Amino acid sequence: MEIKIIEEGKPTVFSLIGRLDTNTSPQLEEFANDLFEGGKLDLAVDMASCDFVSSAGLRVIVAMQKRVVNDGSLVFRNVQPDVMDVFEMTGFNNILAFE
Known about the structure:
The protein is of the alpha/beta class. 37% of the residues lie in helices and 34% in strands.
């Protein structure tokens, strides 16, 4: 998986490219922690090029949502249909924001 910052600011927009799975979820976790430690609590995740999310990826996403719930925002953009199916089957579509 590759993570690219698209736009700095409020929100900070970044894209996920590839698969978010057991092997790559630590990469997202570290990236998000670096953003949070840098004071960036308003995030937008472009998922146009992310074609798979596993349970390990969902765990990282939930942790990110918990970090911003009171002091920031987290929104997912351009979610692929197969990935949205995963969000819907797990009920994540009810706790995450989508554009």
